[in-house]
Design brief:
Among the domains are: about 75-190, YVTN repeat-like/Quinoprotein amine dehydrogenase (Methylamine Dehydrogenase, Chain H), CATH 2.130.10.10; about 540-675, Alpha Horseshoe (Serine Threonine Protein Phosphatase 5, Tetratricopeptide repeat); about 685-775, Ankyrin repeat-containing domain (Serine Threonine Protein Phosphatase 5, Tetratricopeptide repeat); about 780-870, no CATH class; about 910-1070, no CATH class. Helices cover about 35% and strands about 15% of the residues. Strand 15 and strand 16 form a beta hairpin. The two termini are about 60 Å apart. It is of the alpha+beta class. The strands form eleven sheets. Strands 1-33-31-30-29 form a five-stranded antiparallel β-sheet, with no helix packed on it. Strands 19-20-21-28-32 form a five-stranded mixed β-sheet, with no helix packed on it. A four-stranded antiparallel β-sheet has the order 2-36-35-34. The relative contact order is 0.06. It has 40 helices and 38 strands. Helix 12 packs antiparallel against helix 13, helix 21 runs antiparallel to helix 22 and helix 28 (about 895-910) runs parallel beside helix 30. This is WD repeat-containing protein 55 homolog.
Length: about 1150
Amino acid sequence: MSRISYKYFSPSIINYKMLRNRELGLKPTLGYSDDIYRKVYSNMDAYLSNIPMQRFTADQGAIFNLEFSLDGKLLVAACEERSVLLFDASDQRQIKKVSEAHCSCVNCVRFLDDHTFATCSDDNTVKLWDTRKLKTELRTYRGHANWVKNIEYLEKDQIMITSAFDGNVYAWDLKNCSESSTIYNNVFVMNGLMRTKLTPDGTKMIICTTSGYIIIIHDLNLATLSNDLKSFRPHLYRLMQLSDQTFPSATIYNHLFKQDRKSNRLEFIDDFPNEAEVISSLQIHPMGWCALSRSITSDESEEWTSVHDIQTRNPRDYEEAYRYIHEPAIEEDEEELSENVNRRPTDIWMGFLTNDDLNAYRNSPLLNIPENFHSTMGVINSGIIGQDIFKRHFRNRPEDRNRIILNLPRLTHFIKEKSVGKGYIKELCFSSDGRIICSPYDTGIRLLGFNDQMQELCYCVPNQPRELYTIAEMNNYHPDVVVSCKFNPRHYQLVSGCLGGEIVWYKPILFFKDGGEGVEDVPCPGRASTSRTDDMCDIPKVVTDDQKHGSPGAKLSYNLRTRLEKFPLEIRAEIVNRVKGGCAPLFIACKRGQTDVVEYLITVCQANLEQKGLYEVPDERSVHYATPLWCAAVSGKLSVVQRLVHYGADINSVSDTGSTPVRSACFMTHLEIVHYLVEHGADINRANYNGGTCLINSVQSVVLCNFLLNHGANVNARDIQSKTALHYAIQEHRLETTQLLIKHGADYFAKSRFGDDALRTACLKGAIRIFDYLINTIDYATEVLVNAYELLGSTFIHEHNDIVGALHHWRTAIYLRESESNLLPKTPIMHPRASFRYQKEFASSEELDNAMTDLDSIRIQSLLVTERILGPYHKDTVFRLMFRGASYVDVLRFQRCIDLWRRALEIRIEKDTILYSDTCFTAQALVKLMVDFNERCKNNELAECNDEQRFEDVIAVYELLVEDLEEARELAIVQPSHKRQVEGFDRILRCITHLIYLMIQIGNTYEKKVFIQRLVVNIRRINPKTITTEDSLLHLCVSKLNTLRSNYFMDEESIPIFPQRDVIELLLDCGFDVNARNGSNSTPLHIASSSYNFNSWLIKLLLDYGAHIDQPNSSGKRPTELLALNPLNDVYVLNYITLKCLCATVINKYKICYRNQVPKSLEYLIQQHEH
């Protein structure tokens, strides 16, 4: 371990002066307190108490979060492997370990008082604990539908705030709670939410996102927040700021940013020192002055720590913080035109792009993307032009139509971090006085200040953003990357936790002298040391620590080599082959490129050359289990590769994915290593488990491909998708590689699993240069060329929104068709479909010219071409249907989207089953869209509401999903079951409940109601149940948690439908069992009686239909008990308890034998009351 201090201070001198002046009664000089803090914090260092450090890396996993109690006496650690650890802060002793605190990793801990704390987890729950009795949680809060990552607490109102990756921020009222659950409100919803924080006084809420900006909600009022920000889409407004294009659906919310708002005023922060993609970590200054965040670029190559001022600014600063976008004026009479007239672009297709994708698009001659297009938002204008439906709003506020509110610069400090531990969030923290920032830094931490005097922020706010001052770096104190740290709120104490599961404690070590260059090896009271004993059990750790973090030319220390060489050879081999953190010392040395260490471990200690370890590939964000040779080859350490091969390492050893060292070196484009391995016998035609060969992995480099081909690489080798290297070269637009492969005999007629050859792949990917090369080099039949031109034109429409380019290629196709003596027909023949508005594909120049007058017609023509040439089951056919449908939703043309998505769902079910994940994805998106469409029609927000068409659509989708429902469940429960299929089936059942709701809402005639009832009776005969919880449709329909969520749109917001009286009554009238039990033996009444789901009318409805109010579930809970604990309950339970039920309860309680002694009808009743 090493510690670098950036300034030397003498603690003894300051201590003497402080005590002497205090005894003399002298007043402190100016800056005296700053001097004290500077001495204390600059001498922070790791230490151990007399109690040995406890390590539980095997079973607890990474330390994701650390939190001290309010009095600073206790520390709680949130661990990756579902556990929670409790420590005594005074002596670092572990008091308690709760092994199964949650069902998944624990993400965050928050103390509510000195003894009570809350935890949240990836199991979507929040739990409340008491440090005095940790055998079980106080209560569990359910409501989130995805990983819960953050907990905040408003002490004055006793409200707990939680946020999760489902995009919801919930406020839990801890004053009004029962033993089972608590009343909560959904106060804010947005897609891409990462963290939510409150200022200490509760007047501001700060939200960081996955799209490179922070949201501040000033003058926070939780009671009205949900209503104030209803339907507000932060990403859409941010997009408008970036694109300099006004969207009416965004500018109508300009009033939320205005200074005269009394509460819940919005402000965005976007000035980061890097191209921020994800704001992963967020902390608030103890005084509420600033926000501390950690941002990551899109390719995760850079991480930065930033400090932003979040205090309310002078109103004059906001006066000029806007921009007007000048557009052609619209005459009043023009506004009365029909909805078919195109006016302004309001359609935004929101798809995510990486920076590499964006650069490729920008450099493409086929596209015209503005320079201010922001990659992190990932937005492509699909070009649909729709009706401006917001004219009423802008008549009242005309100034808002073309006004975009701008963001003020708020960045004050920043510093670049090491980009290690990719994929993990690093939690920063402030000291209790707010002077110091602790930041995880590789395998240690570093302390940062606002200036070199460690003053408070209010005394050192810069005029321009400047770099944070590094006070100290404490490196290599952990065996793995540090991801969490926390200051004690009452004492000068600091802790940090790492991915390896170790916790290190720090405090000011005032007896230790630091000369500024590093740490002297001087014994100091309480200071941690790397080694204190010659015990053999400690040597493996010392071997690993001694070389793990050294430079490539490092050697093992003389003392360590001496200690190792004292043991016999077989003992040395056993020691150096021990694994720590998934890796043996030889593996770590190979990864670091420490050639001398590798040679010493092999020759002196006989390390196992084939002992596998864990390797994280930075570019792939994946972890592989491989040999040292594979590790050195991927890391680009040629000298290490040469040593390993020299000493006999298996040159064709494989990783856990079946990849050889030479194949993986090809992927990383390490030319010299590939040359060396091939010269020494590496098999370049050996594929991994997915069929990928060295040549397929090398299409990014013409030089590498040429070398492999000259050494016998199979140019036509296929992977499991039946793709060759030529397919991948064309996909990546590699013209030179394509030319080289064809020159060496690549089969350009070879087809992939989807039937794509080289020419079709070029058409689908829009690789125009490769397309031109292929048609000029290869003699294709005229019909093939015609189809290729038509498909390429379709790609220009869908991928690039380039109508001119599409028209050029389509005209060329028409010319080729007409140039044949016999006019080439379009095959196969496509019959008109309702989803395409019964259009036919153009067959002549005149028909094409007619289609070009209508943008909708152009896009339908593109879909017709795609489906005819590719076939309905091709993945790109379905993708383009989904894409085009989504673009219609952006301009609120729901019916057009439903038409296209119905066709996509039909294809999915014909090709696969409802268990297939893509089928489930399509069904969820479609049904959720129908629900949203119905709500807007009820509110008279749309003009295209055709009840007959909507009813037909709902019935058609319902019948598609129900047709093979019974067979699908039987397949899904076959062991071993597939998790995605099980979850997909359960989601399909939720879709069916929502479709029944839509049928009831739209079916307003007697004939329709009779038809609906017949459909529900038919599904009752099947009586489908979810697989995970065995809930019936009635269970789902009484639950508030029965919602539809689809990640197809950025502004995802689920519409709560259930519990819904009409649906429940219909199910009960059609014969669904009101006392049906699920997997936990709970009836629908159990679910309805839960406090989070409580509705008085629902309880009474189920009881009126014969539900047993005293029927126990597997936990022994009865609805009577749940209702008794609910302060809102107004149901008088004694009115619903019968003498028969009481008798059955007594019989079960005292285990009285009743079988064959009472009538069978009573036997069934008694069985229902069994626990």
